[in-house]
Amino acid sequence: MFNKRLTAKAVPLTVVLGSAILISSSAFARSNVYADFPITLKDYSGSSTTSVSYKGQMARHALESSLKKLISKGDMSAMQSYFSGDDANRAIIAPATKGDFVIKQSTIGELSNKNLSGKTYKGLVPGWVGSMTGPEVVAFMFEKAAESEGGYDPSHAMDYTQLVSKFLMGAVTYNQAVDNYLDEKLEADNKPNNKPYKDGAAYTGKEHVWDEAFGYFGAPAHTLTLTAQNVYDIAKQKDAAVADYNYDGKVDLYNEMAFGHAYYASSFDKGGKTTYLHDIVGAYMDGRDLITSVNGRALSDSERNELKGYAQTIKTNWEKVIAEAVFKYAGSTYKDMMKIEAILESGGDVSKEWRNYSKHWGELKGFALALQVAGKDMGATSVKLNRLIGYSPLLLGNTQVTGIDSNGEYIQSDSETWGGYMVHMLKVQNLMVDEFGVVARSNDQTAGLSDLVNSLGAKSSAEND
Amino acid sequence: MTDFFANFLNPEKRLFVGYLISAAFIAVIWLRVINKKPLTEIVSGFFSTQVWLSKSALADYKLMVINQFFIKILAPILIGQLALTVFIFENMHFIFSRPSSSIPVWMVMIIFTTVLFILDDFSRYFLHRLMHRVPILWRFHKAHHSATNLTPLTVLRTHPIEAILFSLRAVIVHSLCLGVCFFFFAESVSLIEIFGSSAFVVIFHSLGSNLRHSHVNLSYWSWLEKILVSPAQHQLHHSINPKHYDCNFGAVLAVWDNIGGSCIVSEKNQDIKFGLKDQSENAHKLKNLIIGS
């Protein structure tokens, strides 16, 4: 049992009684922790006490986090092992125990022995060189990372740690959730709710479909009891107390840790302008409550439509989280370019700023690619985004990577001016506002301008001279 | 009607009640000390029904009211201001390097406030000159010049088309100024303000700008009238006498007229008739003001 927090601590009797009265008097009272949903299958005879299970998804989050560390070491066999291997004893390199933030699991097998390659988006990845599928993009980036020092190629300003990490968050977790579990698997004849997901399972088809989609988002099960700042602090391993929901002194990567896009949602929401994290987790909770409430029978069409409504809330908000990240890192890249230009003009050494520029561009590109692997055609938006960002950052001498040759080596060609590419970054930010309606807008490079126009701009007047 | 009353309550507007009071105070001093007029004559002149209820003044009021409605169609122009500012800001990247080091905010404030003032004043001069020199524009601008009595409210005796042109001018100037200054100084850009308006604007209006449209011929020293436009100089601009045609287009600075060869300094005790040559009594009718005679 996961949902034990209220009974685990000594709580004054009056508070317990008061809470009990409040809860029992509300017709809409419900659990706000994504855990302990009962078994509804009529003929289940196993030993499980709950129908909730999404350990495979959390194993993939742990694989992605660990892989990020491995890319910066450039060890090809280790990278491949975490991407496509099957060794249950692969160590969880990240997140690892840090001070009092003690991680419960130390190997992937303790969660679930999975890999990433089998779940990586198999379609064409628009926006990357060479017309590659998702797994091909990863393999290509692994090779380039192995050839470079610490996963960083300064001559092409490529940071493969960031590129792979952000791309995989899209190509595995985001794609699996929105293009598979929250898509065709919500249809009536696909994983129906009156049958086990697979023989012997403690959960129905739809229960497990929904749980797996929840797992891919990467939020702690008790997110709705936390603030966005709490979840952010959990992801940063700063606050073990809020992470450790069951008070066992350890943070369980299965249901107490924040990963992937849930972490990014919290990072935007903590600014107070958005509520992506709670909107998404709230929709997951509502959907799971609905599935549980039918008690193991097949969902009716109207119930499935309601479920699809929750799925749409999740998809829309999740997409916005990624668009917010694209917005943020376009702003970071712009600022790095300003610094580099100033240093170059004064004849200084740009190596530190070049490293930051490569890192931020890698994050920008990774998120931009992630946005395009949800299985939906983004049409002109996709074309605009990819043309604005290009296949590499703008390099000194105003060139950019424009393709690869038959040996997989980058081809560089003349491109924009330095200022012109900075404008591209501004246009990327505009595109995220226009097409996705991003609100948090971290690193907004024209926010000040819009405020100034509002306060100091011309006002209507019929005055003559 | 909110917009109408805003003319008198907003320190950004020339007709702000505070500026009207300061103008009246300056006029009393000028007429009493320099022109040696008796105080009773000065006060009765201020409230003369021959001025305030003249056909010319009544036409001013009608156009003021009409323009409150026309001004509503300016909203899209003002909305376009952000797009134009961003366009200018973006295009600056192709010409200059964006500086990353910052200069003190107080210095940015001085630069921005001064640049905005100079650009704003020059563009007013330039458009005003065009309104006189380009025949089709003069057809609209002559509605303003048909005033035979000048009161501070004559500032709003404007053809609606001219109001649109002047608003477009303001949008272009502000966008240019904001786009360019934001490129160089980012968020440090701000205005030196008094009562929420540009310090230059407040000073200009506090020092009697409303007397430009009045019969109080407040003049400056000749040398100063080549730098700043005095009320008496603007009254020359409204003169019916052909020798004063197309002079003194400037709003605050006379420098532009000086460079453009259109600066005429005021004369002592000048006695000017205002209006258009050979204009009929019908010139003050709303139909003629808007459609033309």
Describe the protein in words.
- The complex is a heterodimer of chains A (about 475) and B (about 290).
- Chain A contains 17 helices and 4 strands.
- Chain A has about 475 residues and is mainly alpha-helical.
- In chain A, the strands form 2 sheets. In chain A, strands 1-2 form a two-stranded antiparallel sheet.
- In chain A, a hairpin with a 5-residue loop joins strand 3 and strand 4.
- Chain A is globular, with a radius of gyration of 24 Å.
- With about 290 residues, chain B is mostly helical.
- Chain B has one domain.
- Chain B is globular, with a radius of gyration of 20 Å.
- Classes of the chains: A mainly alpha (about 475), B mainly alpha (about 290).
- The interface between A and B is large, with 29 and 58 residues.
Quick structural summary:
The complex is a heterodimer of chains A (465) and B (293). With 465 residues, chain A is mainly α.
Largest sheet of chain B: 2 strands, antiparallel
Q: What's the arrangement of strands in the largest beta sheet of chain B?
A: 1-2
Shape descriptor of chain B: globular
Overall tally of structural domains of chain B: 1
Oligomer: heterodimer
Silhouette of chain A = globular
First-residue to last-residue Cα separation of chain A: 80 Å
Derived from helix and strand composition plus strand pairing, the structural class of chain B reads mainly alpha
Structural class call of chain A reads mainly alpha
